[in-house]
Each structure stands twice: as C-alpha cells, then as structure tokens.
UniProtKB/TrEMBL annotation:
Any single biological process term in GO: peptide catabolic process
Keyword presence, Protease: yes
Enzyme class, spelled out: hydrolase
EC number annotated for this UniProt entry: 3.4.14.-
Name under which the protein is recorded: Dipeptidyl-peptidase
Species: Fibrella rubiginis
Amino acid sequence: MHNPVRTTSLLLLSFITHFALQAQPAPRPTPADTVQAGPYDMGKMWTFDNPPTDYFKKTYGFAPDAHWFDEARLASLRFADYCSASFVSANGLVMTNHHCARESGTGVARKGENLNATGFFAKTSAEERPVDGLFVDQLVKLEDITKQVQEAVTAAGADEAAQVAAREKIFGAIKIDYTNKPGWQGLELQTITFYNGGKYALYGFKRYTDVRLVFMPELQLGFFGGDPDNFTYPRYALDCSFFRVYDKGKPLKTTHFFKFNPNGIREGEPTFVTGNPGSTERLKTVAELEFDRDLKLPQLLTLLRSRSSALQTYNVKAKNDSVLNEIFGLENSIKAYKGQLDGLRDPYLLARKAAFEKQFKADAQKKGGSVSLWTDIAATVSQQQTTFNDYTYFAPNPLSTGETLTAALTLGLLTEAAAQNPRVMQQASAMLDEVPKPKSRALEEAYLTAHLTEVQSALGNDDPYVKAALTGPNGLRTPREAAAYLLANSKIGSRLVQEGLIAKGVEALTSSTDPLLVLGRIGGKRFLVANEQVRQSTARQEVLRSQLGRLLFATYGTTIPPDATFSLRINDGVVKGYPYNGTVAPVFTTFAGLYDRSYSFSGKAPWNLPARWANPPAELLKQPMCFISTNDIIGGNSGSPMINKNREAVGLVFDGNMESLPGAFIFVPDANRAISVHAGGIAAALRYIYKADRLLTELLSK
C-alpha cells in the first residue's frame, strides 16, 4: 500500500498531521442510537508480545503454538524504515513490493541502463547488485518495559510536559541499560508504545546491511494501472521484488523463512499477514475525529489538490521524473485522504465510533475507571480549533507556501523570536539551509497564488495578513495578481539578500519593506504564538491519550489490539469476495485480465505493457495474478507476506481497496479488502515471461 505524501517543516513541526464511500454498502440503520459497535472496530493488528492463540483457535479451529509465532516473527522483516518484507528461502532471499523497492532498485542502475523500463534479474549470484544504504531489520528480542515507564511518568507529577520529558528520559535510560545485557549486544534497540501508553515494549532488531537486488519487474508491471488503479480492485499489478541478504560476503543461511506456495489460495481459507502497519488512529475520540472531518482533512485535501495541479501544469514542459514522482505521491495522498474523509462523513461509521465510545465508558466505569478523560480531550480539541488557521497557514512549509514565502516566514518568525531571545538568530542560516531552491518562477507563482487563495477563503478580506498580501493601489488584487506582484517586487528569494539581512541583525529584518518579508513578519509572529499554544495543547492531549490508552488496556486487556505504530504485527482474515459496482468482485484475477485491461485502454500509459509481454503463452493467461482477503492492513504493510496456517507464503500484500480507506480510524471488514499479488502469479511471471529459472527454482525448492 502506498504511503501518503510526507512533508517537512522548518521548525521540525509539520502542520500536516496526523480512507472511501462504500460502493455497495449493506443497508444501514440511520438513527444513531440504533447503531452498535462492531466486534473488530479497533482492528485485528495483534502483537507478537501477546499472540492471539486462543482467538485463532476459536475463530479458525487452529491453535498455533509459541514455536509457530516465533518462526513467523523471525521470518518477517522491516524493509528500511518504510515497508515490510520477509525471508522466503534458506539462502537469505527477501520478498517485498516493487513500489517499496523502486528507489533502491533503480539506484543500482549502471550507465545507460533504465531499470524502470527493463526491470532487472540477476541470472547468477555474482550479478546480484549491492544497494548502498539499504537495510532490513529482523525482530529477535522483545521485553515488556511498561512498569518502568509508567512509574517514571507518574513520578513526574501532574505537569504534562514534565511527563512527556520523563517518558523520553526513561526510554533513553532503558536503551543504555539493555545495550550491554546478554543477548541484546549489537542489536538496534527501539522503544515501542502500545495503546498510546497503556503498554510499552523494548524491541531488539538484528540489522542486515548487505542487501542486494535479485529481481525487479518493469515499472509498467510493478505499477500497472498507475494512480487511476491505485486503491481499486480488480487489480493487475506484479508489485513484487526480490533481494538477498548477505552475511560476511556470502548469502545468509537461515532456517527462518516462509516456504513459497503458488497453490495455497482457496476461497474461505484463513490468511495471516505479518508486517509493520504504519499508523492508525482507532483510539481517537469522536471529538478528535470530528476535528479531522471538519477542519484538518478538508484543508489538507485542498492543499494537496492545488499543489498537484500546479506541478502537473509545470511538468507539461519540464517533463522531470522527480516532479512526476512528486505528482504521483500527491495524487496517491489525495485518493487516500479523500477516502478517509468520506469515511468520516459517513454518519453510520461515526455512529459506530460513538457506540464504541459509549460502551467503553460504561465498561470502564464498572471497573472503577474515570470517564472524565473524554471531556478533557474534547477541551484540548476546542483549543486546537482556535489556533488551527494561524498554525496551519503560517507554518513555514514549502508545500504550503512555496520556497520564497517559506524563507520569508522563517525570517519573520526569527525576527519575532529574537526579540525574546537574541541567540535565536544564530539558527537563522541553518534553518534557511533547509528551504529548497525554487524549481521555477512559474511554479513559485502557482504555489503562492494557491496559498493566498486559501488564506483569503479561510480568514476573510479583513484579516491583516490578507490585506497586506492583496491590497494594491486600486483596491484588492486577486490572489494571482498579488502573487505575481509580490514575487516581482521581492528580493527575499536570494540567499545573498537573506544572509545580508541576517548579518545586519534584527533591526534590518524589522525595518525591511520587502513585500514578502512584510508578509513573513505578520505570518511568522502569528505562527509563533499559535505554535506555543499548540505545543501546550498537544502535550496535554498526548498525556490524556496515554491515560485513555491505559484505561482501554485496563478495561479490555489484549482482547483489543493496539493501534498501528510501524511495529511488527500479525493479523488474520479469510479469502473472500465482496459486492461492488452492481456485481461481485472475484476472489482472484488472472493474467488474461491484465491483457484485457491493457487492450481496453489501447495500450496507453499507465496500462501499457513492455515488449517482452507482447506474445504471452496461452498457459500464462489462465494463471492467477492478484487476490483479495479480509485482512486488516494499512500503509507500512506494503511488502508484507500473506501466509497460511502452514506458514507458507501464498501472496504478497501491496494495497487495499477503496472501501479499506476508512481503516485509519475504524476497521469494517464487510467490504474492506487487502489486495495481494498471488504467489502463483509471481511464479508464473518468473517462468513464462522472465525465464528466471534460478530464482524460481530457489522459491519452489522443498
């Protein structure tokens, strides 16, 4: 599953914080008081710290022992810091998605090669190419540290900031303590938070840094259908790649791997996904979800749409691959966040969240828990509503304001901060170093126009910032007119000018009449005030969420799994179709469908196929390609193995359908589906198209 676009902020503060309407929804009761919470609204992302043995036995008549879970954990990997993967042979062969491997894979291309166009296969072990900087992590040690952390937080007293600081301090102390403990030496240590603080664990990872590319299909196959087909089903993407871990210069020998089974998918069969889901927010209160629905997500979608449009217009002439990748990322995020917003706007889904909240309160009270937490969290949400505009629109962020205004806002913010602490100016150059150089004047103008349009709509024409930005000699300019004027009459985009003003000190920054710096001072001052208020309310909210998590765990224990935190989980489901578009989605697709979809679009991108795929053998056409199941996944699960009860790899997770997008805040398995590449499809492509006999033999060896 593709991850939503990441953005950065100069103060290490992102104003973008933390999916679709049911195509064929089952009849839903409309009165909120008739809606009940589903048994798995909080999902099925079980931890290996508390494996769900009894639940699996009750649900599937299958009772895996500790050895089963240990082997599943040790065969599962974290791929760099953004995806999942797994060992699939005794010789260190690693399987993950093409879209996870794309950057690493194309990075090993040699002069004259275009691996996106040709794909890659190492016919011999000597041809396997090392990928600089790539690593995979294997979880080998787990330790419960809940008692130490919660005692340290409690000892910090009532101050929220002190509690957060105490938690971070004890995290550091625990890592130092375990660094020299037997069995933990040489491991990558990470503290893991469950239930927002209801439980804590220390994980020790064995990191492998000699990772080499073995196989990667062409981009047309790995990303077949491109963004239009993303988050949809039926699907026809060969979204797979293979790497190999080396140890001391030789392929790693391991007994911990998932045997490859190309014939292991049957409708109704249970399936299990082991991977690292990135982030869910299913413990959020209704008040917090309403904030996301009414403010955060609508603003974010407006931002992403306008920036994508600007980049697409720019790239008509530029035809720049990096810009194209940026557009792909934005469009992917638009689709994902729109699906999440549509889910939040579905009265039935929000009513289910309210029903769970009501039941949670009642159950907690029976056990002596306090229910005032929901009121306290709602109060922090109200505070964030009052600061939303200033914190959102005046944060120095190139995606929001363009590079030039970002520099001006940074200088304006520093000007105001320096009045309180002159030493702040010493950070000015370093902060401006983080601002990217503008790609073009036209793109800067488009971004600034979009920003001014958004602040005018959100703040109104009487707002001082809007007046300063839009006022001309004949009244208010349009945002487009104002953007053109401001950029034409400002020199603040020049690094020499910036350094000159910094060298002259705060007085020069304060007295400058550069029109963009004038805006920067107004916006920077307001952001500084809003940022401090948000910092305080966020610290308060973090502590309250932690208390809510502790209450959840105290009330339900491990019967409810914690939110995703990009830590290793195992989830369960079954291979199952679902109603869509007036018909029924098939459990699996075939290569015949791949060709039909390409022919239906006359072979135009992104449904075009490479030349080697032009004349497929008849046997390939009937082979399965992708399939669906009810497993609970989210971004970060990309590259996760889909396994069966025998711990065999039967598929490779790469996406979810549109109906899965509300899974960020609620898991509704009625039509929520995980989409995987079929193991049989991978084997068929290797056999009939790529003639990758060496790899195929290794995968299918007994």
